């Protein structure tokens, strides 16, 4: 009975919208129309890291071109002019762990290649997200890792809570006053 149960689990796992092919992550992204990600990889020189089939397997959460169209204009300009920012953005979408959607659990955190957390959430309707970006259905298993499409660009956070509140003190007048009175600006000075 236990063997039948284990075989059923294996079969269910195998039928979970997975595709596997011999292409590399870079080839897949190029072939499947992730133009913005491919262009950024080429511009920053990171394409080689994702083109090598013998490299350490990675998981990339690749934003669609529609996701790039939604980011603010100033960030789009920065992506065209600042290659260290481009590398930081791209590395924020990559982890050295292999993450199958079937194994994603609510509240789990993994580290991206910048050393920042990727936080996963699972909702009652089955939707799974990473740092608030919806993960597309299925796993694409490639020669050097996995690709998941996401509907949002994961941008690095560079501002602290206290800095944001201080900068927008008229919008957060009461909160600003409480933080000053409670002497919490230093405590909230870290990045959020």
From TrEMBL:
Coiled coil: none annotated. Residues 21-154 form the FAS1 domain. Keywords: Signal. InterPro entries: Adhesion/Biosynth-related (IPR050904), FAS1_dom_sf (IPR036378), FAS1_domain (IPR000782). Residues 1-17 form the signal peptide. PANTHER family: FI19380P1 (PTHR10900:SF77), PERIOSTIN-RELATED (PTHR10900). This is FAS1 domain-containing protein. It comes from Batillaria attramentaria.
